[in-house]
Specification:
Blueprint (H helix, E strand, L loop, with lengths): L17 H14 L3 E2 L2 E2 L2 H4 L8 E2 L3 E2 L31 E5 L1 H14 L5 H19 L8 E7 L18 E7 L8 H7 L4 E4 L2 E5 L3 H32 L1
């Protein structure tokens, strides 16, 4: 593809089916059903399916009678002229390191776990930049909550790094959408030692406390979603009875 002047990356629409993803969210919202499959990156992931890395598993149905659909991937907040996945999401959470840290993570992961050369990974990063700017970064303006990890060690040259900064060598910047009024900031500051507010809608927590912060922040938000769903079902049942 590169020889033909094409620039295909795993961020853009050539390698991703935004319409199918939006249809899944719509279908699950309507009746709780849908289908999914997995992409197999490594031999360890592929062996249980008797397949090779770089392939997809067969389509399979979502489990029945579920309360929530949890999607973990690159495009849960994608919004283009043709497709808007973000509008279907009740709670959109962004997990994003600063760019240099993201590149370090990719280089170390792809060279160590996936057997790629450092040069090939660097070429992939460069090739993906246009799609990253167009399809990934705008999603973090759509999110309800962002968790952004910021290292406190020198990551000036990510292409020379040999190890990923640890969580204890980082802070996590947690930004809430401005209109979210159900966030108890005093409670979070009290419960997360070493945290502080950097803006009216932003709390900074030590990297080692990220798991605790996510639990304290996301649990009540998910419970609110389930409670709203419960009330909606009661109302629907009441209307049907009438």
């Amino acid at each position: 593809a590169q020889d033909q002047g094409k620039h295909i990356s795993y961020f853009g629409p050539i390698a991703n089916d935004f319409e199918l993803l939006e249809n899944l969210f719509t279908q699950y919202a309507n009746d709780g059903s849908g289908q999914y499959r997995q992409y197999l990156h490594t031999f360890d992931e592929a062996v249980p399916f008797n397949q090779m890395p770089g392939t997809f598993t067969p389509w399979q149905d979502l489990p029945t009678n579920t309360d929530l659909l949890f999607y973990e991937g690159l495009h849960g907040g994608i919004a283009t002229e043709d497709h808007n996945v973000a509008k279907h999401v009740d709670l959109l959470v962004g997990m994003v390191p600063i760019v240099n840290l993201e590149w370090i993570q990719k280089i170390v992961r792809d060279t160590t776990d996936r057997g790629h050369s450092r040069e090939a990974v660097m070429s992939s990063i460069v090739r993906s930049l246009d799609d990253y700017f167009q399809y990934i970064t705008p999603q973090f303006s759509q999110t309800h909550v962002n968790f952004q990890r910021v290292p406190t060690v020198d990551t000036s040259n990510p292409f020379s790094a040999r190890e990923i900064p640890s969580q204890d060598e980082s802070f996590v910047v947690v930004r809430f959408r401005q209109e979210m009024t159900n966030v108890d900031y005093p409670y979070l500051l009290k419960m997360i030692d070493g945290s502080f507010m950097s803006r009216m809608n932003t709390i900074v927590v030590p990297g080692g406390k990220m798991g605790l912060a996510m639990e304290l922040i996301l649990t009540p938000l998910i419970e609110d979603i389930l409670e709203a769903k419960r009330r909606s079902r009661i109302q629907m049942d009441w209307v049907q009875d009438q």
